[in-house]
Fold each of these.
Amino acid sequence: MATKAVRACEEVLWIAKVNAVWILLALLGGVVFGVGPATLAAATISRRHHRGEDVAVLRSAWAAYRRAFVPGNALGLPLIAVGLLLAWNWRFAGDTGNAPMTVLVGCAAAGYAAIVAVLPPLYAHYDLPLRGYLPVASKFVLVNLPGSILLIFILLAVGFASYLIPGLLIFISFGLWITVDSYLCQRFFAANDDRVAARAGADSVQH
């Protein structure tokens, strides 16, 4: 019992550290140019943490941030633009009472949220050409709908809790989302890799 309590406290401390480092790195990039690289860096160190490695949060995140600055902005800036466009369309649909448009924008926002959830852990887990991450993330969302729905739910839950208690943003929100999201995505990726390997093995036996 005491061991579990210590581990829980260590995990909370880890989440708080990731949250602080994410905010620091995002601000370092002027927010707009810092959010993408900071998120990829946080996902990278979270993957190492979940694999049982001893991670020096600030030093490791800074190293990952520098490596991810260009790809983080190449992937992140279009997503920021799409997010702003979806938010504007959602508000416009609500103001005009356009129900079909509201449903359409809501469906698009759900797909967008799933891609946002999958992309950082995907970057941390797989070494792909830069142009390949968004297509692969989109495909993964479509073929793993239960997992994608869970990731969307977690993102919305953290966002709603932070909306109700804004102080969470300073201490825990970003670190909590990134830590949980990375953990789940690693499990999804491992399961997907096992399915692909099993299918390849079955094909080789048949031929």
Amino acid sequence: MLAYFRQNFSFYLKANIVAYFFMILILVIGIVIGALAVKILPDDQKSELINYLHMFFTGLSQGNDDASSNNMIGMVMFNNVKTVVLMWILGFTIIGIPFVLFILFTRGFIIGFTVGFLVNEYVMRGLLFAFASILPHNLFAVPAILVLGVSATTFSLMLVRRKTYDKINIWYEAVRYSMVCIMVLAVMLVAALLEVYISPVFMKLAATFLTKH
């Protein structure tokens, strides 16, 4: 069973290696541009963000988190479901590929800006907090988004080529694509649980360190 899975995974990776390279490149470009955007941020907006972060760190270190986890989980899950459903729908449209790439770019930009701003203002302590707040759930969310982006793009391209290749069973491919989206959705829901219940634990530890130094 393990050998069968390994063989199929190897075949899948070889068939989509170019698509994954391109998707990862778009994500990395988003991260880099997000980090560079910190440098051109106006001073007044930077000051507002610093003040907000200071209050946020203080609240976390003192355990005064106003946002209830029970309220947050619904919002985070809804956002993750919305992202997966949107990318699933875009896969069925030939013109959806640029929008899929934009979603990936935006995800990278947010990560890059967050890490860049924290490191720019707090150096190593900011990097510590960035890892604590971003890494746990994104270990699941980013690979899931990449898989979904590749699946949506390849399915959309297959719709373009279906008239050239008569052997393509469009309904079978659509079901297989939808099954991938369902699996990605399950991973994204796990990522939401980590974001709401696990990441704050590390964030509080990091915030305590930030406020004491």
